[in-house]
Amino acid sequence: MNIEVRLFATLRTGRFKKEVQTFERTVTPKDILDQLDIPIEEVAILLINGRDGQFDTELLDKDVISVFPPVGGG
Amino acid sequence: MKGYNGKILRVNLTKLEYKVEVLDLEMAQKFIGGRGLGTKIFRDEVDANVDALSPENKLLVVTGPLTGTPTPTGGRYMVVTKSPLSGTIASSNSGGYWGAELKFAGYDVIILEGKAAKPTYINIEDDKVEFRDAAHIWGKVVSETSDILMKEIPEKARVMTIGPAGENLSMIAAIMNEKDRAAGRSGVGAVMGSKNLKAITVKGSSKPAIHDEAALKTIFKDCLGKIKENGVTGSGLPTYGTAVLVNIINENGAFPVNNFQESYFDKAEEISGETLSEKHLIKKTACYRCPIACGRHVRIGDGEGGGPEYETIWAFGADCGISDMDQIIKANHMCNEVGIDTISAGATLAAAMELYQRGHVKEEELEGLTLKWGDADSIVEWMRKTGRAEGFGKKLAMGSYRLADSYGVADLSMSVKKLEIPAYDPRGIQGQGLQYATSNRGGCHVRGYLISPEILALPEKLDRLSLEGKPLWAKIFQDLTASIDSLGLCLFTSFALGAPEYADLVNAVCGTSHTADSVLEAGERIWNIERQFNLEAGISPSEDKLPKRLLEEPIPEGPSKGWVHKLSDLLPEYYELRGWNKEGYPTEERLKKLGL
């Protein structure tokens, strides 16, 4: 199963912008964030395929998750 | 009452005379200041059906009770007039340092009337008010005008000026201060130009009196802590500026591309806030007493200067299909130099590109430039021509509605009440769409920034595509924003602060007894008086609408694929919550309750 992980703003520091990760088993956004050493408290916006996502949703093959720290403006 | 200076400077440009009048403090308190007080005075004094570019229109520059005080971001001023672009009430806000300086000079409000016989600028040094000849700066761009004026006025005085666009009566002309801060929207620069007024320079020597210094210190510390701890105001905005939104809005599939024909830009990363910080940023900048510092100072070709905001990057970027950040930065700089609103200018250029795409605009009109999606090479020159009203630039200078209408296809203007909609596709963010449709100055994002709950999860996360509860969120955000705009603070404080903090701040400065509820009620009063003006000006509730494309053409690709905006499902509840009748007119009962 392939999941595209997109990181933004400060979450990129020491990590990556975009990466396709392969998993042999079912996986949730929380599993992926744990593996990247990103505490859930540092995540302000989690999108799964561009829609509001939950940390414990079981992801499907080819899902895209976008992860943002608290940022914004206008 | 403290906080206010209690003085209005009334200037008659026809006669080159001025007088200082006493500000009615009871009225000031009821409408707070800035946007609210300005609208109240304007509506009392000016016929709503006035021609916006005639000498009979007035131009008000209004500070708030917190402008120039030691409050976080307390440096803003509001320009209030009738908009030549939309025909609505215009209130256009700017930061920087000019507003605070006007307060130091001893005034709360300047009322500019009539029209000077020849180009003129006004120099204010406390009680001294002078009319000076502006022939030597007429026609000059904003930075050059500012540099010349700085040699003619006291050290550390502040300059507010129009560029060539305002002189040429461009409907999208801005008023600039400190070279790159702008009262940008609604064409207020054209009103200044129509009065032959090139600039106002100001230097003051006294700080406004504070009611309770000790209480203010405590509240300031509390507010500063909240601003620093908040992820958006404490780290997001300082680190990346507003441009950090490029990726956020794009990932949600609500980042309009090619004049809203699409809403997901596959080259967003190239024009993102992350890229701006990594490749172009020299340093961040802050307005008067601002702990956030979202301003960007960037490399511009071989030079440097003010950097583009999110909205500007979108307008010249995705909305024109362009991903060349260098050219976007240069276009932003050119807009600042000629003095035009970057949102309306970029969005009008995008409308022109669609007119070209569909064969309405012909090659021979372009004088060797191009209007092709994604072609960045011409955008800086287009902005120069827009500011100078040269060739096709003269059409661009009238804004997207008049441009598209001149080819018989007004529907290609992505505007509300003729003001261009900014960088959030309402089809993918339903509450924001209701806000655009009902905003009293037309297509504007900062009259009620529902992006905050619908995208940024502040103060809580709402589903951006759901309609549930959105009318109430829109009303509350609109009312609170009207109060913030009237206090003289920056709207960005509202990511971290709420009505209770604003009440505490104004009470400490002015000695008033505001509560969170009364702050919101003042905002509702201001919202309603703006609505009354618009109705009197012939802007009927049928103008509470969105462009046809956004109501009928589903977003073709990306995370918001298939969505249109469902305005008709939201408007009735919104009118009801506002205490307006089903047709959208304020009821006597609600107006009476608000003391109108």
Produce a short descriptive summary.
The complex is a heterodimer of chains A (74) and B (596). Chain A is mostly beta strands and 74 residues long.
> Strand order within the widest sheet of chain A?
2-1-5-3-4
* CATH fold naming of chain A: Ubiquitin-like (UB roll)
**CATH level 1 name of chain A:** Alpha Beta
Kindly state the percentage of residues in helix of chain B. 25-40%
Listing every helix as H and every strand as E from the N terminus to the C terminus, the arrangement of chain A reads EEHEEE
- The termini of chain A sit apart by 37 Å
The total count of strands of chain B amounts to 17
List the uncertain runs of chain A.
none
CATH superfamily of chain A: Beta-grasp domain
Gyration radius of chain A (Cα, Å) is 12 Å
Detailed description of the structure:
Chain A is mainly beta and 74 residues long. Chain A has one domain: Beta-grasp domain (Ubiquitin-like (UB roll), Roll), CATH 3.10.20.30. Chain A is 9% helix and 30% strand. Chain A contains one helix and five strands, in the order ββαβββ. Chain A has one helix at 29-35, and strands at 2-7, 18-22, 45-48, 51-52, 64-68. A five-stranded mixed β-sheet of chain A has the order 2-1-5-3-4, with no helix packed on it. In chain A, β3 (45-48) and β4 (51-52) form a beta hairpin. The longest helix of chain A is centred in the middle third of the chain and has 7 residues, at 29-35. Chain A starts with a strand and ends in a 6-residue tail after the last strand. In chain A, 34% of the residues are buried. In chain B, α2 (34-45) runs parallel beside α21 (516-536) and α7 runs antiparallel to α20 (499-510). The mean pLDDT of chain B is 97. Chain B has a six-stranded mixed β-sheet with strand order 2-1-6-3-4-5, sandwiched between helices. In chain B, strands 8-7-12-9-10-11 form a six-stranded mixed β-sheet. A three-stranded antiparallel β-sheet of chain B has the order 13-14-15. The two termini of chain B are 22 Å apart. In chain B, 39% of the residues lie in helices and 14% in strands. Chain B is an alpha+beta fold. Chain B has three domains: 7-203, Aldehyde ferredoxin oxidoreductase, N-terminal domain (Aldehyde Ferredoxin Oxidoreductase,  A, domain 1); 242-416, Aldehyde Ferredoxin Oxidoreductase Protein, subunit A, domain 2 (Orthogonal Bundle); 430-593, Aldehyde Ferredoxin Oxidoreductase Protein, subunit A, domain 3, CATH 1.10.599. Chain B has 24 helices and 17 strands. Classes of the chains: A mainly beta (74), B alpha+beta (596).
